[in-house]
TrEMBL record:
Organism the protein comes from: Soonwooa buanensis
Pathway: Lipid metabolism; fatty acid biosynthesis
UniProt-listed InterPro entries: Eno_Rdtase_FAD-bd_dom, Enoyl-CoA_Rdtase_cat_dom, FabV-like_NADH_b, Trans-2-enoyl-CoA_reductase
Binding positions (substrate): 226
Sites marked Plays an important role in discriminating NADH against NADPH: 75
Protein name as catalogued: Enoyl-[acyl-carrier-protein] reductase [NADH]
NCBIfam families registered for this protein in UniProt: EnoyACPredFabV (NF043048), PRK13656.1 (NF010177)
Origin: domain of life: Bacteria
Amino acid sequence: MIIQPRTRGFICLTAHPDGALQSVKNQIEYVKSKGELKNGPKKVLVIGASTGFGLSSRIEAAFGSGAATIGVFFEKPASEGKIGTAGWYNSAAFEKEAATAGLYAKSINGDAFSDEVKKETIELIKKDLGQVDLVVYSLASPRRTHPKTGVAYASVLKPIGEPFTNKTVDFHTGVVSDISIQPVDKDEDIENTIAVMGGEDWKFWMEDLKNAGVLADGVKTVAYSYIGPELTFPIYRNGTIGQAKNDLEATVPVLNDLLKDLNGTSYVSVNKALVTQSSSAIPVVPLYISLLYKVMKAKGTHEGTIEQMERLFSERLYTADGVVPLDDAGRIRIDDWEMAADVQAEVAKQWNQVTTENLADISDIEGYRKDFFNLFGFEIDGIDYEKDANENVKVPSIAE
């Protein structure tokens, strides 16, 4: 069928398999261009492996250091006459390219919060890999059913304490406007958001993996976070999501204790602001990213998810001397180029000036739009979107 993008707000309802394949190939070529990561991981589990930082982590591990990878995700499969999700096509593309390169790659599609998927993953590790030496935790979900209690939680995106008013942009139309968001009116909303996006599930995964004996000596585990500039603090770092991120970061010492007898370590990596399915949903953030892109591209410091993950692996997690550089709070910072004083000063200056009329001149709103559609396999260079595409693409390792 001919597949074109159909959008509803910050969601694209369609995805293109050929575009996804080319996008994955582009990331692989970037990793290969950086050379072999000689002391990198060899057996890797990526939880949340189908899009964004999780997908790029899997690509970096596989094609940067030749790692065998298992990816866990929750995506809608493709079938005859029915388009799969972008993450499904990404995962199919990854497995295809891994097989061509002679790399082990298998995937599990299901609710990663559930005990059933954890058990299935452990059984696969035992059967095929024995143990893993890196666990990447990159889940992004608005809802979670607690595996022990069965209680369903939904996260909310709200400030805490005071209403928040600031600029935002509709990246489809380019209209800059003010938006006001009311604060949470009950502590339960904060608790629910922490339950979905905090560190508890990461801890559950690591406990189950350790108890099953599938973590190698010297194992590392990393989860992803974001801080951002002060202008986004009310809706992000000081809001409900920020409370969940605080909980995620507070899980690090707990996991370090858990992994001590394995000589293992856990980390939270604070990553750069990028166009993802999650970030597109946060008011204010698309406008900030559009301005940030313009500034960082002009300085030659702009990165996408694959550039970020290559730098995380080669310059943080797997350094030549084995030392992982951390900030004063014990976090890895690969948002360092974004948060550079000169970058933030320029973004703040443009933020005060930006309007609908000058948006195209002082921001990279077109770059934002392109990155958004790229997430779903559209607007990828070299793809003819007027040609029929085979929508019924399989992920080889997943049984029908």
